[in-house]
Amino acid sequence: MSYEAYQEFVYDAVLRDWETLADEMARMKELLDEGSEVRIVKADTNLTMSIEDRTAVNSAASVVYDSHNLPSGEVFTAPTRPRARCSSTCR
């Protein structure tokens, strides 16, 4: 990767509308907190995980929350063990 390409990559990751992103991610956290199951389906994969009684973490736009940890921007949770079901074809 050239210096110019790397510079553009970093600037794109850091120079964002963090307040808008934080609002969007707060909505995603609410969806996960209210949900009981996550299902990922694509060719040759069908993964279902229980997230019942889990609390999602919003690591959105840290600058909005005055931590200055950039880039940021993820909402995550973990499945409830042992309730994951998966069918997949490995190649």
Automatic annotation (TrEMBL):
GO terms for biological process: proteolysis. This is Thermophilic metalloprotease (M29). Signal peptide: none annotated. Coiled coil: none annotated. InterPro entries: M29_Exopeptidase, Peptidase_M29. GO terms for molecular function: aminopeptidase activity; metal ion binding; metallopeptidase activity. Keywords: Hydrolase, Metal-binding, Metalloprotease, Protease. Pfam families: Peptidase_M29. The keyword Metal-binding applies. It comes from Halolamina pelagica.
